[in-house]
Amino acid sequence: MVRRVPNIVITGTPGTGKSTTADLVASGSTNVPMRHVNISDLVKTHELYEELDKEWNSYVVDEDKLLDFLEPQTTNGGLILDWHACEPFPERWVDLVVVLRCDHQQLWERLEKRNYPLKKIQENNESEIMEVILAEARESYAAEIIVELTSESSDELEQNVTRIVAWIEQWVQEHPDGV
After folding, report:
1. Other Cβ atoms closer than 10 A to 163
2. Residue 100 forms beta bridges with which residues?
3. Which residues of 37-76 are buried (b: 16+ CB within 10 A; e: fewer)?
4. Helix (H) or strand (E) holding 139
C-alpha cells in the first residue's frame, strides 16, 4: 500500500507540550488531514498494557499489543503519534520525529501544576536535563528526520505548529506518488 500522507512522532519529556502541539498541528493542517493519537490515552482505552505500576501511577505498556494495534492505521499515514517515547515505533512508519524540549526549571513548574509526585518530577526533570528522549530519537531514527524544538512559550508553540504544518505540506508536494 502506498502512503500519501506522512506519519509524525511528537515526543519529549512529560510536560514539554506534546499533546498541545499535536492537537494544534492536527487542527492546523487543513490542506492535509492529520489525526492526533495520544498514545497514553490509546493504551488505557484499548487496554494495551501489562499492568498498572502503582509506584509511578502509570501503565506498563505492552509494546507488542500497541504496535499491532497501530500498524494498520499507519499504512495510510496522517498520524501524529504523541508519546513520551519514540523508539518503539518502527522507522518505516515514521517520516518526522519532533523532539520537544523545555528548560528544566520551567518543566519542574509545569509538572508541579499537574500534581505529579516529587519523585516523578525529579525523574522527568533529570531525563530532560540529560536529553534522554533526544538520545533515544537519535538512536532510533535517521538524523535527517529528527527535529528538536524548544517549547517554552506560546510564541514558540505557535512557531512550532506553523513549522510542522509547513513540513507536512512540503512532504506531500515532494511525494506526489507516496512512499
Report:
1. 14
2. 12, 149
3. bbbbebbeeeebbeeeeeeeeebebbbeebeeebeeebee
4. helix 132-140
Give the three cell numbers for residue 14. Answer: 512529560
Closest CA to 10 of 174, 69, 23, 135: 23
Cα 123 to Cα 108: distance, rounded to the nearest angstrom: 10
Cell, residue 110: 509545569
Residue-wise pLDDT for 152-179, tens only, equals 999 999 999 999 999 999 999 999 999 9
Model confidence over 9-22: pLDDT tens digits? 999 999 999 999 99
Cell output for 178: 507516496
Nearest to 97 by CA among 137, 43, 38: 137
Q: What is the pTM of this model?
A: 0.96
pLDDT digits (tens, 9 = 90+) for 79-120: 999 999 999 999 999 999 999 999 999 999 999 999 999 999
Task: Calculate Rg over the CA atoms of the chain.
Answer: 16
Q: Give CA separation, 125 vs 12, 35, 101, in Å.
A: 11, 29, 11
